[in-house]
Amino acid sequence: MEHSPISTLPGDGAAYPPNRRRRIAFTLIELLVVIAIIAILAALLLPALSKSKAQALSIACINNLKQLQVCWHLYAFDNNDLLPPNNFVYNVEDTNTPIVRNISWCPGLAPLDTSTSNIENGVLFKYNRSVAIYRCPADKSTVRTSDGEKLSQPRTRSYNMSQSVNGEPIVIDYIPAFAKFSDINRPGASELFVFIDVHEDGIWDSLFGIPPPGWSFLDANGVAVASTWWDLPANRHNQGCNFSFADGHAEHWKWKIPKVVTVPRGSIQPVAPGESDDYNRVQSGIKQTMGP
Questions:
Q1: 36 by DSSP, 3-state: which?
Q2: Where does the pLDDT of residue 28 fall: very low under 50, low under 70, confident under 90, or very high at 90 and above?
Q3: How far is the C-alpha of 207 from the C-alpha of 85, rounded, in Å?
Q4: Domain spans, the chain
Q5: Which long-range contacts (CB under 8 A, 24 or more apart) does 141-150 make?
Q6: What 3-state DSSP class applies to 143?
Q7: Rounded-to-integer distance, Cα 206 and Cα 89, Å
Q8: Contacts for 28 with CB less than 8 Å, ≥ 6 apart
Q9: How far is Cα of residue 95 from the mean position of the Cα atoms in its chain?
Q10: Which SS3 state, helix, strand or coil, does residue 52 take?
């Protein structure tokens, strides 16, 4: 009986008939097809991964604000209902001139603070000794020297407290502010924002100010302008910003118009065309009138 010839592939102990040799590599066309498929999948997945990362950073920021809000409540509980002081404020039109530098929830100038000492000297620090909760994880800004030289060190703080919370005493006679938690009304505790994520190109002191409803200012031409930004909310969370509120919850607000600093530091920024809804929404979250 005759037997068919058998061949053995190099390095393989198995034997195969000559006409059924095992393929050990892709053809060039097959390899190009696989590469093309991988490229298509990457193009589909990368935007989703980027969006997921941005959402995760926003959630972490909201968690920071909730922790600060807990500290805020604990301070009021320990101090007979008195809200944390908000007494480190610089002139809106002259950022080199302090209005008041006194005991506060957090003193310091965010772009210049190269250490966490100002955070640690704030009245809230003893309730949570993590300095990380004062900085938004999506805030990529760095500190600078007083001469304007940019440094590589990340800033230590991204958040401000609303002027409506126990604002500095020099202007409290004409800027509405609540001194005690039990005083909060118009708006109520669920609508009064306390901490806000501030735009990295505009943050300076630790108080977030916005003109109360009905206020107006004269521009360079002597024309009354009713809607102006003193401080600008952040825009780094998918064209949005995060807030905490006096009742303890936190929210993400999506802006209709991107928030961009358009004026030099020390100038009041007019509300941009189409931005009125965003502006009015922020304005609705502060104390509306003087008195109770």
A1: helix
A2: confident
A3: 10
A4: 46-283
A5: 141/111, 141/200, 141/201, 143/111, 143/112, 143/113, 143/114, 144/111, 144/112, 145/112, 146/112
A6: strand
A7: 7
A8: none
A9: 22
A10: helix
What is the DSSP code string of 196-256?
EEBPTTT--SSEE--PPTT--EE-TTS-EE--EESS-B--TTTSEEEEEETTS-EEEEE-S
How sure is the predictor about 214, in pLDDT bands with cuts at 50, 70 and 90?
A: confident
Pairing of strands 159-162, 207-208: parallel
Closest CA to 156 of 216, 107, 89: 107
The encoded tokens of residue 138 equal 């999506």
Which residues, 6 or more positions from 123, have their beta carbon under 8 angstroms from its beta carbon?
A: 75, 84, 85, 103, 104, 105
Residue 19 is classified by DSSP as G
pLDDT-based confidence at 104, cuts 50/70/90?
Answer: very high
**For residue 44, what are its two tokens?**
């589909």
Residue 255 has pLDDT above 50, yes or no: yes
Cα atoms found within 13 Å of the Cα of residue 125, Cβ hemisphere only = 15
Question: Encoding tokens for residue 191?
Answer: 């609508």
Q: Can you give 83-139 as a three-state secondary structure string?
A: CCCECEEEECCEEEEEEEECCCCCCCCCCCCCCCHHHHCCCCHHHCCCHHHHCCCCC
75: which 2 tokens? 């301070």
